[in-house]
Amino acid sequence: MVQIERHWCMPDKNTFLMKPVKTLLSKYNFNNWADPFAGYNSPAEITNDINLERPTKYHEDSLKFLERFQPNTIDGVLFDPPYSIHQAVICYNGNEMSKSSALHYDQISKIIKPGGTCICFGWNSNGIGKTRGFQMEKILLLAHGSSHNDTIVTVERKINHSLI
């Protein structure tokens, strides 16, 4: 059964600093986790951000970064891409919106070990998905009030080898 929680919090471009997100992430060990859009505050061990000003290990295109890993070798992925074209233009000059999220999801499903976890952030609850061998465990809804969209966080476990 999927656990659903809803919290109110101020929106923050630094997703990992929002209190409900910090609480969720405190339950995980991020050794051998990858983050293709790490920004400034990612707890993942292996971080990437195409912006050279971000303090990450790699500064590659997000899909190229995910393709560097062999199948079934990563314990987890934090996936917090720009949620809209507007955000991509502001944060990355539009560079990270040229590829479909489906390509990212396909690659994430290949690299996470069976039993591994993917935590996705955005404005929908699709996550990586059942057809890619993942089972939804938790949905965290972060209401921001007024005219702000909720931030939706999904936590999924890889239960099968990739079906892609």
Describe the 3D structure:
The protein is α/β, with parallel strands linked by helices and 164 residues long. Helix content is 20%, strand content 28%. The protein contains four helices and seven strands. Strands 1-6-7-5-4-2-3 form a seven-stranded mixed beta sheet. The protein starts with a strand and ends in a 6-residue tail after the last strand.
Please outline the helices and strands.
Blueprint: E1 3-8, H1 19-25, E2 33-35, E3 46-47, H2 62-67, E4 74-79, H3 85-92, H4 101-111, E5 112-122, E6 134-143, E7 151-158
Parallel strand pairs: 1-6, 2-3, 2-4, 4-5
Antiparallel strand pairs: 5-7, 6-7
- Number of individual domains: 1
Strand order of the largest sheet: 1-6-7-5-4-2-3
CATH class reads: Alpha Beta
User: In the CATH hierarchy, what is the superfamily?
Assistant: Vaccinia Virus protein VP39
Structural Rg: 15 Å
Total DSSP helices: 4
The overall average pLDDT, rounded, is 91
The total strand number stands at 7
Structural class: alpha/beta
The 3D shape can be described as: globular
Unreliable stretches covering 5 or more consecutive residues? none
Distance between the termini: 25 Å
SSE string, helices as H and strands as E: EHEEHEHHEEE
Looking at the structure, the CATH topology is Rossmann fold
Strand content: 25-35%
- Major β-sheet, in short? 7 strands, mixed
Architecture, according to CATH? 3-Layer(aba) Sandwich
Share in helix: 10-25%
